[in-house]
Design goal:
313 residues; alpha/beta; 7-stranded parallel sheet; binds coenzyme A; Peroxisomal 2,4-dienoyl-CoA reductase-like protein SPS19
């Protein structure tokens, strides 16, 4: 369904900043990644989105193409990121039909909620294979093109890059592993690996002009992830416990993407950009005797404990 611009990007970006560029995105038919790609397309890029489901991927490609008149968006279905040869073929086709790969979003992921005693080795392997190996396969399949693009789009931070930016990759990760998250051991392990991979790409390929970063979204409203991993009746309460007081939007992940891929992100390399309204910082406040954030907002003193306030300041 075609979207209003403000549903997938802010108004601060200039049209045309990604003219003549191509973004290659795994998991591109998903709710978050499709917004990232749609924003890039709106700002001038052509795109190739990769997915397992043929119909979903092809339909999403057509839909994303409505973001800009004349945009070319390829939807390559039946591509499983666990199969390196399938990704290599997809990257080759992308370059043959669209001319280059300047930006990569490694977004394909697998997730479900289960405690580790209910997760078989095969289930663990599925998630590791999709997230870690899939991201690795994505890097391997696209790196030669990213290096080529990086060589053409060097930035020195002092002069306006005449042909814009290129040679950049973003891995879509999570915050689960920062503190540990119950029922998410498999994904926590996988995303820690993805983060490590992004840093390795930055260190090894940075000297060739590549930037490699992670975006770690928190709970983003109306996404497949939230639908898969949370009950609808608990969402208001969990939103309230986020410092920013609400779930994020796909637009806010797309904005972070444009920041990292455009000239604004030229000197950001090997970093994790957490876009979660401050959520992961509050993982220690759940289950306490003082409800977050009501206790803080009420301004009441801590009472009934030996460590409470003893006298007026
Ligand atoms: N709890 C425990 N184990 C589960 C599970 C669950 N909810 N869902 C699947 N599994 C297990 C299966 O039982 C199987 O293990 P087994 O062989 O020991 O029985 C294993 O995971 C593989 O399942 P299968 O359905 O064959 O794998 P798949 O490769 O088709 O799917 C998944 C991979 C399991 C990650 C699936 O959830 C998926 O396709 N997810 C993609 C979409 C997604 O998760 N996006 C992320 C949005 S946040």
């Amino acid at each position: 369904m075609p979207l209003e611009k403000y549903q997938y990007m802010s108004n601060v970006w200039r049209d045309g900043i990604f003219d003549n560029k191509v973004v290659f995105c795994t998991g591109g038919a998903g709710t978050i990644c499709s917004a990232q790609v749609r924003a890039m397309v709106h700002l001038g890029a052509d795109a190739c989105i990769i997915g397992r489901n043929v119909e979903k991927t092809e339909n999403m490609a057509k839909d994303i193409a409505t973001a800009r008149t004349g945009a070319k968006v390829l939807g390559l279905g039946a591509v499983d990121v666990r199969k390196p040869e399938a990704l290599t073929a997809a990257a080759e086709r992308c370059v043959k039909e669209l001319g280059s790969i300047d930006f990569v979003i490694a977004g394909a992921a697998g997730n479900f909620l289960a405690p580790m005693d209910q997760i078989s080795s095969n289930a663990m392997k599925s998630v590791i294979d999709i997230d870690v190996l899939g991201s690795w396969n994505t890097v391997k399949a696209t790196l030669p093109y990213l290096i080529e693009s990086a060589g053409k789009h060097k930035t020195d931070g002092k002069t306006l890059p005449p042909n814009g930016t290129g040679g950049r990759i973003i891995f879509v990760s999570a915050t689960l592993h920062y503190t540990g998250t119950p029922m998410q051991s498999h994904v926590s392990v996988a995303k820690a690996g993805v983060d490590a991979m992004a840093m390795s790409v930055a260190i090894e390929q940075g000297p060739r002009g590549i930037t490699s970063n992670v975006i770690a979204p928190g709970p983003i409203a109306d996404t497949e992830g939230v639908a898969r991993l949370s009950k609808s009746e608990g969402r208001d309460k969990s939103a309230k416990a986020i410092p920013s007081g609400r779930y994020g939007t796909v637009k806010e992940i797309a904005d972070a993407t444009i920041y990292l891929f455009s000239d604004t992100g030229s000197y950001v390399n090997g970093e994790v950009l957490v876009v979660d309204g401050g959520q992961w910082h509050t993982s220690g406040v759940g289950g306490r005797q003082w409800e977050y954030p009501d206790f803080l907002l009420a301004g009441a003193p801590v009472e009934g404990v030996a460590g409470g306030k003893k006298s007026k300041l």
